[in-house]
Amino acid sequence: MSDVIVVIGAGSIGQAIARRVGAGKHVVLADLRSDNASAAAEVMLDAGFDVSTATVDVSSRESVHALVEEALGSGDITGLIHAAGVSPSQASPATILAVDLYGTALVLEEIGNVVAQGGAGVVIASQSGHRLGALPEEQNAALATTPVEELLNLPFLQPEHVTDSLNAYQLAKRGNSLRVMAEAVRWGKRGARINTISPGIILTPLARDELTGPRGEGYRQMIELCPAGRSGTPDEVGTVGAMLMGADGAFITGSDFLMDGGVTASFFYGELAEGSDGKRQS
Question: Where are the chain's structural domains?
């Protein structure tokens, strides 16, 4: 039996982190699309990793629970890399909340029930969560601690209040970081750690969907006008993920790491503060 790393979302970022923390362990690559998981597994198998694949729908408790049980069949779960999600250009507000908010809370609960002593995980959130205005404290607490099956029933998440996909995405990603803070307390009782990474524009298929979608111009502005002057790479996120999951991150839990090339800084204090129409860029 091996130590097991569960990767949910077998895209570029999930793979980049897995390559850094998966040596000598069994890596379970899970994705909604089996062809995505198989393609990622082929690359990692060719590179010498011990890998298996699984299909998972993070918006389904039955599916997530089955994935956890399958992973436990290979050993103790010592790592979680949760990188599954949909972007504003890919889905409706309801789907974004179901996958990105509820799905993340569900994964954190199910893995947190069984994670091994010394285990660690990272959840991929987003810079978008940092550009949502301040929420009332009771809404922060609700996103962090509401029982998973009641989460989507919160009054402020109902369709009459969340009317567009970008707002749903911002709420979901803010909710991810808040949820991880609360889960860090529970995971800590098992001797495990959990953190979020909030990347900016990382050149992945999801980012390319945004760059060619209705918000493409805004995305290109963020790249051009941010302090770094470029987009990021999955391997750069992988470096931060490996630090958080490894010995160098042993004193870090319940934290969120914003790595966006300074887009958020520029959004509040720089050239992105106002667009050509006098409104903040999203």
Answer: 2-202+232-262
List per-block mean pLDDT (blocks of 10 residues) for the chain, which spans 282 residues: 95 96 98 96 97 98 98 98 91 97 98 98 97 96 98 98 95 98 98 98 80 82 93 97 98 98 95 56 45
- Sheet containing 193-199, strands listed edge to edge, beginning at the edge strand earlier in sequence: 50-55, 26-31, 2-8, 75-82, 120-124, 193-199, 256-259
Catalytic residue among 25, 102, 173, 219: 173
| Owner of token pair 């998972």 | 56
Which one is catalytic: 169, 189, 219, 269? 169
pTM greater than the 0.90 cutoff: yes
- Domain spanning 2-202+232-262 has what CATH number? 3.40.50.720
* 173 is an active site residue: yes
169 a catalytic residue? yes
